[in-house]
Amino acid sequence: MSSPNASDLHQVSDRLAKNAMRHFSERLIEMVLFAAATVSVLTTVGIVYVLVSESINFFHSVSIVDFLTDNQWTPLFDDAHYGIMVLISGTLVSSGVALLVAIPMGTIIAIYLSEFANPKVREIAKPVLELLGGIPTIVFGYFALLIVTPLLQTIFPQLPGFSLLSAGLVMGIMIVPYIASLSEDAMRAVPMSMREGSYAMGATKLYTAIHVVVPAAVSGLAASYILAISRAVGETMILAVAAGMQPNLTWNPMEPAATITSYIVQVALGDLPHGSIGYQTIFAAGLTLLLITLAFNIAGQWLRRRFREAY
Amino acid sequence: MQTLTTEQIRKLIARGKMKDTVFQALGILCLGIALLVIFLLVSDMLMRGIDRLTLDFFTNFASRRAGQSGILSAWVGTILVMLVTAMAAVPLGVAAGIYLEEYAKSNWVTDIIEINITNLAAVPSIVYGLLALGIFVYAFGLGQSILSAGLTLALLILPIVIVSTREAIRAIPAMIREGSMAVGATRWQTCRYHIIPYAMPGILTGVIIGLARAIGETAPIITIGALTFIAFLPPVPFTTAADGVTAGMFDWVLSPFTVMPIQIFNWTSRPDPAFEVNAAAAGFVLMAMVLSMNAVAIYLRYKMRKNIKW
Predict the structure, then answer these.
(1) Quick check: A33 and B98 CB within 8 A?
(2) Which CATH number fits domain B54-307: 1.10.3720.10, 3.10.580.10, 1.10.10.10, 1.25.40.10?
(3) Which pTM was predicted?
């Protein structure tokens, strides 16, 4: 080895400088990427902050007891009542109708696609279902109001022009693809050996599907149902268009009623001044909506853990 | 123990097969209903709206007279809002996806981010509207503008973009990274020259699906208080309006606007049935936009699955 001369030293220091620069820019890029990843956390923080802070203002003027027990919702009248149960009933009834359609239909389609259909049918059916799931909800609202309601009126002549029933039915159809697609994925993940064991015992396809595959995939099915519930509870436009927007404390799907979401739309369509009590009601309603969604999600997580089958 | 005769066993088998067939029929029926709904929707809108689907419909503003109403401000607004949404959601979503797959250490911070992304997907879209009303419209003072709407929808589709980016990156085998790093590339160089290009089709699919979702979203945009009757277009950059004010490069982002779904909602909720025809025609245009975007995404995914063999 020759002793280092000046130009060698120069080269080495150049290299080191370059390395340091490289190291620095690598760190910088990592920080930028990390910042992007935290945007989603900030979104959640923002949602909670906005809903809670405006709701606190709201609960300064309205007591929580009234909010939960009053059976009228007339925040924009002179004689204002703030009974959120009115809106919750509309939300629960329409979601109930939707889930009564979506859960059986979605599950049957999932079982059929995963256990019965040949691969070609599946290759075509899944994208078609995805297309159905991609249709804008406002278009479904149009469908509910102008096609489904008149159709239902030929069966039930006393059905009004706006009803939770037709909105709920269409919502159900809208949710079917979510359930079908997620449940099918869950069932296809069940190992083939379990089916083969069942077939070897002489079980039919349907028996295997119901007694072997479905129990094994139950946590995936539950996840798809939870997502479906969240969709139904949070669905807005179908209800705003087809269920009417008058507050109505009812458990009868044949009646028109407002839901939490359609109330928010109704207020937003009007011109309420920022900071007024009417403005604050939509945040209190939004917080209620978020808490309902959260409650269903937590219940679902618990059920999943409780009934998970390990194999 | 009970013994069965051959005859009884045959009957049992026949009954089991029968049930299988019945269930298959049921499955096909349910699929058929789903198909029928799509078909009914598209054909009904086309039949009702076909007379309105002329060039005038695309070049006229909304009007009080149903017959002269058009969707000019709506489709221009939709395209501009989507532009803002894509500009915000794509860099953020892809960067977040890259961070989570390539950089994140497995610690509690990463756990929080991941759980958070999963949970955001279940948050109703109208809640994003309330977030935007409180933060973008009032706290940031952006008003009921294209920028507010675009950012709101960007937050809404961010989880979709992140998840599809992560899935696309996860499908790239480790040997690609090892090879790149073995020749001295840094982590970012590996991402920049290998991971991102190879994940591009998957990312693109996710972006298209996200935008197709955003284009049809109505509730969050209504919630921020977007006007429903707009008979003008946002200012074109560097042009001078009638009042002598020259528009700047980015003036359009703060302009009031309307979008296709809001226009449809507006027409659907009018009592005059003449507007139903407009709603049908506009609905058909919106459906065509959304379905073609979805079809492109599905096609891309199909191509990808066929072509890539690591």
Answers:
(1) yes
(2) 1.10.3720.10
(3) 0.88
